Amino acid sequence: MSLAVADTGAAAPLSAADQAQVLAVVERLRDLPGALLPILHAIQDALGHVPAAAVPIVAQGLNLSRAEVHGVISFYHHFRSEPPGRHVLQLCRAEACQAMGARALEHRLRERLRIGFHETTADGAVTLEPVYCLGNCACAPSAMLDGEVRGRLGADALDQWLDDCGVAR
Amino acid sequence: MNASPTPVRVYVPLDTSARAVGADAVARAIAAEAERRGLPLTVVRNGSRGMFWLEPLVEVEAPAGRIGYGPVAVADVPALFEAGFLAGGAHRLRVGAVAELAYFRNQERLCFSRIGTIDPLDLEDYRAHGGWAGLERALAMDGAAIVQAVLDSGLRGRGGAAFPAGIKWKTVLGAEAGQKYIVCNADEGDSGTFSDRMIFEGDPYRLIEGMAIAGLAVGATQGYVYLRSEYPLAFALFREAIDRARAAGWIGADVCGSGRRFELDVRMGAGAYVCGEETSLLESLEGKRGQVRFKPPLPALKGLFGRPTVINNVITLASVPDILAHGAEWYRDYGVGRSRGTLPLQLGGNIRYGGLIEKAFGLTLRELLYDYGGGSASGRPIRAVQVGGPLGAYLPESQFDTPIDYEAFAAIGAMLGHGGIVVFDDTVDMAEQARFAMEFCAIESCGKCTPCRIGSTRGVEVVARIQAAREVERNTALLRSLCDTMLNGSLCALGGLTPYPVLSALNHFPEDFRPRDHAQVA
Ligand SMILES: Cc1cc2nc3c(=O)[nH]c(=O)nc-3n(C[C@H](O)[C@H](O)[C@H](O)COP(=O)(O)O)c2cc1C
Ligand code: SF4
Ligand code: FES
Predict the structure, then answer these.
(1) Highest CATH level, class, for A87-164
(2) Quick check: B518 pLDDT over 90?
(3) B239 pocket-lining for ligand 2 (C-beta < 6 Å)
(4) CA dist B486 to B115, B188, B496, Å?
(5) Best mutation site among A93, A100, A134 for ligand 3, i.e. most ligand atoms within 8 A of its Cβ?
(6) Contacts of B61 (CB under 8 A, 6+ apart)
(7) B341 and B303, same structural domain?
(8) Which ligand is nearest to the CA of B277?
(9) Sequence-ordered list of residues with C-beta below 8 angstroms from that of B225, at least 6 positions apart, any chain
């Protein structure tokens, strides 16, 4: 086991518990045809992100190079390499939501959170991510708040949610 | 002591959009209030009827039929009980018999026949409403006869390109023997579309049945559904549906005791729009970066893991059971010209009555926008609609009489795509929409070809310069030539069609690309 940790190069090492989780995921799913995406999903579901230190473990388990695994992680918008904040706000930026005021919500969020997309507030409270359609286009504008889709989302409801997350007005 | 009365069935949708506007809390409140009053009732979580302005739409199985109330808020629940809604009583939110509402009654719901009426995961409900009839029919036919039925139905792919499904199936049937695959494209990335999602959440066995029939038709024993990560609820429900269908013997090692095999698995995408493109999707299923492949070879001959593969959209596959059950002619009788059958249209954005409208091809955009949609949500004039997702053209009012028909749309330089219609009122800034189209292409480009990867980034800059009133004429000419390069030099439709929203905005709404008249008060 120490091998996998020593092998991660510059990446911050995984805690023993996280490493055990990653190893278990790889062990459980490696024999699926096209196993890499299911494995990355399972790691992100368990740890909130796919840490750089997990890459060599996954690569070894699937007999791929680290560059290949890294290339796949970086290709897909869904996978994060950094841990998210305590809350994740995914705002829909696509056309149907634009038609119902999503751009104004985006401005409001940038102002209040003082961050851009793919960033986390300094206190670690909220990560802001873009999403392009949640299939809720008839009840726009939409966002996914900690994994739950919310529709007909006004600025007030969004502000309320941020208040509940402990974000200062 | 009296025997306890049979519990009334109350339907509260579990659909993502219904939940997004509070359906879960309403379902809990109804159950709690019933308990408090000692009234026996069963809360059934159905799919949505697709009349989203009414969500959460609560339906009660009353003596007079299914009576609807909506949109219901938690605060309305006690008053609904007071009004005797369990027997269909009068209340401000009562909309009457749901199936009789004009919006619903005037549709031709084939693919969506069960959605909103049944319990999506209940196998008995599915069977009682005509489920598995197509599969049973197919089990008595040989592969070539199934393929012929799909050919004769005139069914064209509903994912965007509208390629005849039967021709694709025929190629796979005739391909070299050995492992073949059925892949369902459930990436549904187009803004303004949610029909695939509604199938997963409202009638998932329909897709399973369609895929099993496809497997029997071409001799494929393994199916995969590639479902986007933005639809976690659809994913969870579909997983459960696969397990239940397998346990009941509808799929698996011995389909309905026929001795034939069809295994099914669902995989989650990872937030890449381009993975809706079929070859990119196959790369992704194989566990790689979702880069588009060169064609040929066609996926029908060398698809998933290099094997012959049918890849179809959810709605294409979900249309197949009825074609088998009722016959190719029955399906063909709907529609116009070379657009046969029905299309589930999806009205979203700035529209008063947004929702799912399944109709035979041939009605006009105007009928959809005004007769169904009731005009804009804001009450302001509708200025532009984008049909067919982010790669579709923006259409001005003068084109609203175009019939919903693949060829009629192609004739005006537009496309129906997956049937999404996004509505904008007169506050829209079309230069900003054009800039976004380029930005979206830049974000989602798979990076394989230069016109798309670099062209879109340059496109964002050029539109921004026009918006800033810098050398407008020169930059407009530059934008057109950039679009030309992308149109002609891109490997797939992401780079190749992004010029459509851009150029249609420029051509139909040129005033938005001219320097603003600063004297004018906004
Ligand atoms: C950029 C891009 C995105 C696409 N997205 C989807 C999608 O989300 N769903 C889909 O069914 N087809 C999508 N397509 C079309 C597919 O490439 C392909 O035509 C379709 O899966 C074939 O199935 P059908 O014949 O049943 O429509 C997309 C195409 C492109 C170029
Ligand atoms: S057009 Fe864009 S998305 Fe399509 S293959 Fe080329 S780079 Fe990839
Ligand atoms: S565009 Fe935002 S949910 Fe579809």
Answers:
(1) alpha beta
(2) no
(3) no
(4) 40, 23, 5
(5) A134
(6) B8, B9, B10, B11
(7) no
(8) 1
(9) B183, B184, B186, B207, B211, B238, B264, B265, B266, B267
Would you call the peptide bond into B71 cis, given omega within 30 degrees of 0 as the criterion?
yes
**How many residues does the structure list for chain A?**
169
Determine the residue of A133, A139, A153 to mutate for testing ligand 3's pocket, defined as the one with the most ligand atoms within 8 A of the Cβ atom: A133
**pLDDT attached to residue B516:** 74
Average pLDDT over residues A97-122: 97
The amino acid present at A61, given as its one-letter code, is G
- Whole-angstrom Cα distance, residue B412 to residue B402? 9
Contacts of B175 (CB under 8 A, 6+ apart): B300, B301, B308
Measured between CA atoms, how close is B340 to chain A, in angstroms? Answer: 26
Q: What is the largest CA-CA distance in chain A?
A: 53
| Interface mutation vs chain B, best among A41, A64, A72, A95, most B CBs within 10 Å | A95
Q: What is the CA radius of gyration of chain B?
A: 24
Backbone angles phi, psi at B415, to 5 degrees: -145, 150
ipTM of the complex: 0.96
For the segment B479-502, the average pLDDT, to the nearest whole number, is 98
Q: CB-based contact (8 Å) between A99 and chain B?
A: yes
Residue B519: the pLDDT is: 43
Its domain, for residue B39, covers: 8-105
Q: What is the mean pLDDT of chain B?
A: 96
CB atoms inside a 10 Å sphere around CB B252: 17
Bridge partners (DSSP) listed for residue B424: B384
Sequence-separated (6 or more) residues with CB below 8 Å from residue B213: B134, B135, B138, B146, B320, B321, B324
Question: Do the domain assignments include residue B1?
Answer: no
Mean pLDDT computed over A115-129: 97
Domain boundary among B425, B453, B481: B425
| B194 and B222 inside one domain | yes
**Ligand nearest to the CA of residue B448, numbered in listed order:** 2
Domain boundary among B425, B444, B478: B425
How near does any CA of chain B get to the CA of A71, in Å? Answer: 7
Give the per-residue pLDDT at A5. Answer: 44
| CA neighbor of B206 nearest in space, from B286, B303, B307, B131 | B131
Looking up tokens 């990653």 gives A22
| pLDDT, tens only, B129-168 | 999 999 999 999 999 999 999 999 999 999 999 999 999 9
